[in-house]
Specification:
215 residues; alpha+beta; seven-stranded mixed barrel; Pyrv_Knase-like_insert_dom_sf
Length: 215
């Protein structure tokens, strides 16, 4: 699996809902090569490090493929005119939650990154879209996007290829795992939930979520 990178995006911390509730969800395209560090892209920031950023959430990838679906769902919102509406760092076409698996390793330019978990939506998406029910749409449609941890540092730029180099957990797609852990599918697939314990690259917060659901 190889796809061209449409855009690399970074953002800085800015006031969001209120001066004391900042966010860096507003990402903008970056020209030229960007350094990929263990904690993410050079020049990219996160406001609340308790729930954003860190090694398992170093880079956020959201498929531009979904933008047409969102336009049909919520209308031709201004944020959907270009990549970055969902706070993503990487925008591509041809990769979705149905084709990307937890534990996949991808070459991003010269960096190597591993898929760690799906993106669990929060209130900031609803607020960013002016109060529209984006969170609910993400959960119901499983159009979550996903995060990478950085295995090898390097550089990446728009136009570079993103190429699959290893898939140790065939079948454990981001969509399937998101469905089990976030969207309630564990209620009718207890066997799948138990089997997910073998997917070692799953990020620690989602491992804890898995343990809670297994009870």
């Amino acid at each position: 699996m190889t796809s061209p990178i449409l855009s690399i995006l970074c953002g800085s911390v800015q006031p969001f809902r209120a001066p004391d509730e900042p966010s860096a969800i507003a990402k903008r395209p970056v020209g030229g090569s960007v350094r990929v560090h263990r904690l993410g892209l050079a020049g990219d920031e996160q406001a609340d490090l308790a729930v954003h950023g860190g090694p398992d959430k170093a880079i956020h990838h959201y498929p531009h493929d979904h933008y047409a679906w969102w336009r049909a769902a919520i209308g031709d919102h201004a944020l959907l005119a270009a990549p970055g509406a969902f706070g993503e760092n990487i925008s591509t076409e041809g990769m979705t939650e149905e084709s990307v698996c937890i534990g996949d390793r991808y070459r991003l330019g010269t960096a190597l990154a591993e898929v760690s978990q799906g993106r669990q939506p929060c209130w900031k998406l609803d607020h960013r879209f002016g109060g529209l029910a984006i969170n609910a749409g993400v959960v119901q449609s499983r159009r979550s996007g996903w995060y990478y941890r950085v295995i090898e540092e390097g550089e990446v730029a728009a136009g570079d290829a993103i190429a699959l180099v290893d898939r140790p957990h065939e079948g454990w797609t981001v969509r399937r795992v998101f469905g089990l852990l976030i969207a309630g599918e564990h209620k009718r697939d207890r066997a799948g939930l138990a089997a997910l314990t073998a997917v070692e690259p799953l990020a620690d917060p989602w491992k804890r979520r898995l343990a809670q659901l297994l009870g």
